[in-house]
Amino acid sequence: MSRAWKYALPYRPYPHLGIARRSRLQQHKRFETVRTRYMTTGSPSALEELQSLRDFGRTVSYGDDFSVTMQDFRNLAKHFISKAAELCDELMFDLKPEIDLSRVKDDIANTQSRFSFVQHPHNKLEDAYFELSAKACETRRNGLFRDRRWD
């Protein structure tokens, strides 16, 4: 289940995020609220405003010292994808497992606490957690184990 669905209609509560479990009734109303706010062109959001300005060849500025060109706006998606990839590499301690994402299986009906697609037997990723833990401990840059002590 995608994060958007989990946010819009969470099967279980996420108290640390302030998200309650979905109600048993009127789920379509909650979904419609989220959908129109985040997923619909024409909704009042900063991104929608930028897209509208782009469509009409307008520019965005903040005073005389700052402006966003349409080329800057077009490069925004590339920038966020690049930054997300950098963060992923950092979080994975530059570990790049060979995983064919098109073949990964998940069990979205599994409501067990702490179940992950990593544990699904088809994916053969049972040892991935240990590989990542070892890499996190061994890496010199921001590693978790320094001077023979756990950081």
Briefly summarize what is shown:
The chain is mainly alpha-helical.
How would you characterize this protein structure?
The structure is a single chain. The chain is mainly alpha-helical and 151 residues long. Among the domains are: 1-40, no CATH class; 88-151, no CATH class. The protein is built from six helices and four strands, in the order H-H-H-E-E-H-H-H-E-E. The chain has helices at residues 3-8, 27-38, 46-55, 70-74, 76-91, 128-138; strands at residues 60-61, 67-68, 145-146, 149-150. The strands form two sheets. It has a two-stranded antiparallel ribbon. A hairpin with a 5-residue loop joins strand 1 (60-61) and strand 2 (67-68). The chain is extended.
Largest sheet: 2 strands, antiparallel
Distance between the termini: 34 Å
Number of strands: 4
Strands across the major sheet, in which order?
1-2
Residue share in β-strands: 5-15%
The average pLDDT is 78
What's the shape? extended
Oligomer type: single chain
